[in-house]
Amino acid sequence: MVYKAYLEKQPTETAVITTPKEDKPEMSASGAIELIGSKISYPDTTNIDAMAPSLKIEGYEFYVTPAHENIKAHLSKSTSASQAASDVNTIASTLKAAGFRERKLDSGGQDYLYSEYRHVNTACLLENAPSSNSDYERRFSIGCHDMADYYKLAEKIKPLALITPNYSNYRLAFFGANIKDSVTAGYKTADASTGTYVDGTYGVGAVVNLYYQTHDGVWQYFKSTQNILPCSNFNTEDIKKAFAGNQCADENGSIFQVKP
């Protein structure tokens, strides 16, 4: 399996995200998308290609982003450049009128435009980018997530973050976390796409960190990778039991399964 690498930027000053104190009407992620959809003609709410913002939650020393497939609410649209610009302006004005704060993000390129929108209990990320469909010039998408889920995700990731190498030296962003039981009773594994994040930008250099938990309930960091690991890396009894059934490659590139 090959994992996607994102554009990495140089560190700047970090801003800690705290819950705003303004007295604003509540707006859920699904409510925000429903509101936007009422202002945009022919939006697509079935194609999940939106992202949510990377946020540093108060009380946690790392950024979190809900995994791509877990975005709470989203819509997108492929259209002409002029219509995309018009629709994006409509989205911005609609969200700001509903009490959202707008922050434009630096993507490192003029063709890719990103804006973050924050409400008391909702966070959204808007992307306006070149379309991969030759019939259209642009494709914009927006993904929103409830802040309560950010806190749950941060708490879920915390034990993994604390044992990740360079945790205290870099601004780490975790893109979800997949925790599952191993085929060996009493063992668990976890994987989380992780990278160095710069507040106020879009895009990080990402790798997948692998972790495992033994029968004593303690999490252990294993490896960071963007590819299938060599079978020789699975070299202890606990590692073999934890990752039993996972794919690995020999020196010739042949694929095997890890055996306990």
Short description:
The protein has 260 residues and is of the alpha+beta class.
Characterization of the model:
The protein is built from four helices and 13 strands. With 260 residues, the protein is of the alpha+beta class. The chain has two domains: 1-180 and 195-205, no CATH class; 228-260, no CATH class. The strands form three sheets. A six-stranded mixed β-sheet has the order 1-2-8-9-10-11, with helices on one face. A five-stranded antiparallel β-sheet has the order 3-7-6-5-4. The chain has a two-stranded antiparallel ribbon with strand order 12-13. It is elongated. It starts with 28 loop residues before the first helix and ends with a strand.
Write the layout of secondary structure elements.
Layout: H1 29-37, E1 55-56, E2 63-65, E3 73-79, H2 81-97, E4 101-105, E5 113-118, E6 122-130, E7 138-146, H3 147-161, E8 172-181, E9 188-196, E10 205-213, E11 219-225, H4 237-242, E12 247-249, E13 255-257
Parallel strand pairs: 2-8
Antiparallel strand pairs: 1-2, 3-7, 4-5, 5-6, 6-7, 8-9, 9-10, 10-11, 12-13
